[in-house]
């Protein structure tokens, strides 16, 4: 769920009935897919650049 649905580990922990704030999910299941992670970072930079350009105009 953390990787495929891109949900925060805290949310997944709640869905699984854990009460540790997502620690176990991060430790055991929270390994992010490298390509998806890089895509998210790239998209965030693109949004920031687009927003910055709008403010400069």
What does this structure look like?
This protein is 65% helix and 0% strand. With 57 residues, the protein is mainly alpha-helical. The protein is elongated. The model has no long low-confidence stretch (mean pLDDT 85). The protein has one domain. The protein has 3 helices and no strands. The chain has helices spanning 9-16, 23-28, 34-56. The longest helix is centred in the last third of the chain and has 23 residues, at 34-56.
What helical percentage do the residues reach?
A: 55-70%
N to C succession of SSEs: HHH
| Main sheet characteristics | none
Number of helices: 3
Q: Strand tally, please?
A: 0
Average the pLDDT over all residues and give the rounded result. 85
What number of structural domains do the residues give?
A: 1
Which of globular, elongated, flat, extended, rod-shaped describes the shape?
elongated
Low-pLDDT stretches: none
User: Beta-strand percentage?
Assistant: under 5%
Q: CA-to-CA gap between the ends?
A: 40 Å
Structural class: mainly alpha
Radius of gyration, taken over Cα atoms and rounded to an integer in Å: 16 Å
